[in-house]
Write a structure and sequence with these properties.
Distance between the termini: 69 Å
Number of strands: 7
Shape: globular
Helix content: 40-55%
CATH topology: Rossmann fold
Structural class: alpha/beta
Largest sheet: 5 strands, parallel
Order of helices and strands: EEHHHEHEHEHHEHHHEHHHHHHH
CATH architecture: 3-Layer(aba) Sandwich
Low-confidence stretches: 9-14
Radius of gyration: 21 Å
């Protein structure tokens, strides 16, 4: 008999039978920040209703067109910059901006050491066909390996080095090229993972430095993972706009995949993974599952149900087969590559990024926020 996976000391097979889920989406009881009303509908569904109540894509597309027209042709080489992972969302952003809106795009790709074969092949095909500007950023592996280890051991996550490692170069290239538009494929509607589960919505400069804790010299971080205060000031005065393209146009996942297959011969992971661009993504979700009993897979499927891109029954069937409740085949190779033992990995399950202070917990952040609000009122 297969041994049941232990989640926070409980048998999840038993816990799953008792789980209560939202009557509208599929978020389970115990999801961070979740609450139900009298009809059993969760607060995330209600927040979605408020967010889409005023959604009008005809209006938002016109607003986007005005923004693009204002910045088109203002710089010598490029009109906008995007981060390009090789996944479907960033590729669709590139396709829309280049082919539909006729912008000159600089695509910046970050090689974190775990880019999947699917992503590599897709990147080659897309860039070759569109003929856009393309830059691959690679930081030295010894530094990346140490950072992965530090974040996993101290914060129970290892995605922050990648998130920071791509955002800083994107800003650098945008300012060097005199570009004022940076686009991403992050959706406020579909990318709604809790900041208690994933550090991507928690991390900032203070959090990053508190995890590093002086173990890596700052001169090795500046320009790659950190900006100097002068660079931060220059960024603040450069008026670079970070825009989420899904805020302006329809973001239907099935239609996006259809377009990418038609235009580029897009290759997909046969298991239908949400983040097939990174081989370590399964390990990220597995780690979160071991900690919480569910991962971003459940949150993604719930968001698709809210947005009427999946039925609730389809999502319930998919979560049974796609949730990260099995040890990824790549786990041993991943641990060996970054130099972490199995024992250390198991210990990281009890760690959490929220125990490490970020800027919001610093006294000066509260003072700055108060001053900003008072200034707006004046």
């Amino acid at each position: 008999m297969e041994k049941a996976l232990m989640v926070r000391g409980e048998n999840y097979a038993t816990k799953e039978k008792k789980a209560r889920r939202c009557n509208r989406c599929i978020l389970p009881l115990g999801y961070p920040g979740l609450s139900f009303d009298k009809s059993g509908v969760c607060n995330f569904c209600k927040a979605y209703d408020l967010a889409v109540r005023t959604r009008n894509y005809e209006v938002s597309r016109r607003a986007l067109a005005r923004i693009l027209d204002k910045h088109r042709g203002r710089s010598r080489n490029y009109d906008c910059v995007i981060g390009m992972s090789g996944g479907k969302d960033s590729t669709y952003v590139l396709y829309l901006l280049s082919e539909v809106f006729h912008m000159r795009v600089l695509a910046v790709h970050f090689d974190n050491g775990f880019v999947s074969p699917y992503a590599k092949r897709n990147l080659e095909k897309v860039v070759a066909k569109l003929g856009v500007g393309f830059i691959t950023v690679r930081h030295d592996w010894p530094t990346m390996r140490e950072m992965y280890k530090m974040f996993l051991r101290r914060a129970g996550e290892f995605c922050t080095p990648c998130n920071v490692g791509i955002s800083i170069p994107i800003l650098k290239f945008a300012m060097e090229e005199g570009v004022r538009l940076v686009f991403s494929g992050v959706s406020r509607i579909l990318d709604v993972a809790s900041p208690r589960m994933y550090a991507s919505k928690y991390l900032d400069r203070c959090y990053f430095l508190n995890v590093i804790n002086g173990q890596i010299p700052r001169d090795m971080l500046h320009g790659r993972f950190l900006q100097s205060w002068m660079e931060i000031l220059r960024r603040a005065t450069s008026h670079v706009m970070w825009l989420k393209l899904p805020d302006y146009v329809e973001w239907d996942i099935k239609n996006i995949r259809k377009i990418l297959r038609r235009e580029f011969g897009w290759e997909e992971d046969p298991n239908g993974k949400f983040h097939a661009d990174c081989m370590a993504s399964d390990i990220k979700d597995y780690l979160v599952y071991r900690r919480w009993g569910f991962s971003d897979v459940t949150a993604k499927l719930a968001a698709l149900v809210r947005d009427r891109q999946l039925t609730r029954q389809e999502a319930l069937e998919r979560v049974k087969s796609e949730e990260a409740n099995k040890e990824p085949d790549f786990l041993d190779d991943f641990l060996n590559k970054i130099g972490i033992s199995r024992t250390e990995f198991e210990n990281s399950i009890d760690k959490t990024h929220t125990r490490i202070p970020n800027c919001r917990e610093c006294w000066w952040f509260g003072s700055f926020s108060l001053a900003k609000r008072l200034f707006k009122r004046a």
